[in-house]
Amino acid sequence: MSCSPPCSSSLVGGMSAGSKKFRHAILKNLLLGLRKGGAASSSRGMSLHERRDAVRHAADAALASARGATPRWSRALAAELSSSQHGRRRPTSWADDAHHLVDVPATSARPSGQCKSSPACKMVMAGCKKMISRRRLRARPKSRATARAAGAVARVMARRRARALREMVPGGRGMVDECTLLGETLDYAVSLKAQVDAMQLLLRTLQAPKNPLLKPQQ
Amino acid sequence: MSSGRSSSRGNISEDEINELISKLQALLPSSRRRGSGQASTTKLLKETCSYIKSLHREVDDLSDRLSDLMSTMDHNSPGAEIIRSILRS
After folding, report:
1. Please, are residues B3 and A136 in contact by the beta-carbon 8 Å criterion?
2. How distant is the Cα of A110 from the closest Cα of chain B, in angstroms?
3. Cα separation of A104 and A76, whole Å?
4. ipTM over 0.85
5. Which of A26, A160, B3, B12 is deepest in the core (most CB within 10 A)?
6. 3-class secondary-structure state, position B77
């Protein structure tokens, strides 16, 4: 692969969770990630366990970067992935691309010196800072509609269920607002399904025996 | 108990919540089968948890199978050719 600057356009991202385009984006990102992660080579460099982890990692990164920075779970997932990057052998710049796309600097443990240079990253950081400082505000007086809605959600979501959901959805623990949690859960579930579909497609493709249809018919 | 922060786009209405809930219901495979009108919301959330868990398990399983497959793949197999052509596009 040609060397790419940060926020490279080779990674596909930022579309709606349910679309076919989204599935294909995951697939493409997955292939890119696998190749750069070294999992795609048949060299003996990796143990089975390492390879499995690399595949899982590539799949999650593909999902997060395909979904983009809009949903919170996506940013949280990308942050988790880039902070777990450090213990192991580093793949290459695609991880930095995903990191630049969706990084949440306040929650990520890694030094973000490199990050500050890229303009898109600056945007993300500015947005995140705004979000974080908003959270620090004291509880504003709620409008009646919000109070009613909040009451409705509270009735609706039993404590235990909300807690369970928070653990399943990346970044869920940061979602105090149960309305947000519900929306994020929905988006996450749809996106997960797309991830599964993309991986199944890849698996089927790789398992295909020598297929006469593959012969060039031009 | 609730936070002071409403949705960043403004107040979420009760309608939007109901919409989210019905979308969740439409998403879950089991509730589609039952074709139920108004399932209990707690049950719905419980099923959502199970659904997400099962999707996680599937991703794990698929990762296993993919990594097995990739470790045995040689560069001349049709699978490798497909990958190369997708990456080229």
Report:
1. no
2. 26
3. 7
4. no
5. A26
6. coil
Which of A140, A153, A209 is facing B4, going by the closest CB pair? A140
User: Which amino acid is residue A92, in one-letter code?
Assistant: T
- Determine if residue B25 is left, alpha or beta; phi over 0 gives left, psi from -120 to 50 gives alpha, anything else beta: alpha
Residue-wise pLDDT for A24-50, tens only, equals 889 888 988 887 776 666 555 678 888
H helical segments located in A38-118: 48-67, 72-83, 93-102
Q: Which pLDDT belongs to residue A44?
A: 57
Does pLDDT of B60 surpass 90?
Answer: yes
Interchain contact, B59 vs A178, CB within 8 Å: no
DSSP string, A128-191: HHHHHHHHHSPPPPPPHHHHHHHHHHHHHS-HHHHHHHHHHSTTGGG---HHHHHHHHHHHHHH
d(CA B55, CA A116): 35
In angstroms, what CA-CA distances link A4 with A87, A94, B78? 24, 8, 28
